[in-house]
Design a protein that fits this description.
This is Sulfite oxidase. Keywords: Metal-binding, Molybdenum, Oxidoreductase. Its cofactor is Mo-molybdopterin. The N and C termini lie far apart (about 45 Å). This protein has 4 helices and 23 strands. The chain has about 350 residues and is mainly beta. It binds ligand MTE and molybdenum atom. The site of ligand MTE has 19 residues, from strand 7.
Length: about 350
Amino acid sequence: MWHKTGMIVHERDPYNAETSREGLLAPITGAASFYVRNHGPVPDVDERTWSLAVGGLVESPARLTLAELTENFAHHEVVATLQCAGNRRSGFLPVEDIPGEDPWGPGATSTARWTGARLGDVLRSAGLRDGAAHVEFEAPDVSDLADPPQRYGGSVPLGKALADEVLLAWAMDGDPLPRVHGGPVRVVVPGWIGARSVKWVERITVRTDPSANWFQATSYRLLPPETDPDSAGPGDGISLGPVALNCDILTPEPGERVSPGPVRVRGYAHAGEDRGVARVDVSGDGGATWVQADLAEAASAWAWRHWQASLELGTPGRRTLLARAWDTTGACQPESAGALWNPKGYANNSWARVQVRVGA
Ligand code: MTE
Ligand code: MO
């Protein structure tokens, strides 16, 4: 049984659950609180018979057992935050409804210390052939959300696949990878949308083109707002890869009553791929004035940064707390969800907004 306690459950079957605001406060989330995103039933994978096929544009196609993967390749550890493209989708709903998608809040993201072999080491040992440009991952879980129903899969460009931080991970926080998180082995693609970190991976194919799997070619793409998502076809919209700069407020919680006087505001911020979080600003007066938050050290270049600030909220009444992060390129999160709304509700990285009541 893989259902967890203390989670905000969006669906029981397939199991989809987000981490609570409280659970998001820890630098390393822990398997018990780590968000779960599934597009089909969790497959019954036996680690004794599991194997990983490596093929396509390689010199020597291979099939690796778990023992071969763990014994023949160097072990590496990376602390990395995974973030679903649908994280903070609920912030889009006041703009316009998003039928058919779950209203994930700030908890479709979590951080773990992953251990595994470098995908690049496995690819280099198989030998890359001319024309190699994308690396496809396939898993055995079948999703009937896909049209037609199919196994889950996706791909990343070769350059990312060969990067040091990308792992074929068999452990999470030092323990064998739990089944619900892709055990025995999953791909971990730090800095990219969670969808590319394929769980229960059993086939890797080196290709000239991105994967034709529905979750790569048709889903997880940013469509223009006027598009009907049901009639969008392969290649429509913008393919999502590196995650957008984002942040949210974790305490106080929405609707919380806070006493007048200084209020401690805490949250997380995350910048994808080669960017880092450089600054977080917090406001208690609708953005008229801002306070710079104190940033905690990141556990790695691939992990989120927690932050905290103290705000004077003044007289009793309703207040909206705002937070916005800046990254190491000098970019800031966009102000409004309205400008970002898209029919599948992906990549909402607008300013964090939490309404509280100041009262005795
Ligand atoms: N891999 C498989 N095989 N099946 C899936 O449904 N979901 C993806 C990705 N890998 C998925 C998958 C998505 S969209 C996300 S955000 C992450 O897994 C979530 O990983 P987690 O459930 O370990 O948090
Ligand atoms: Mo996701």
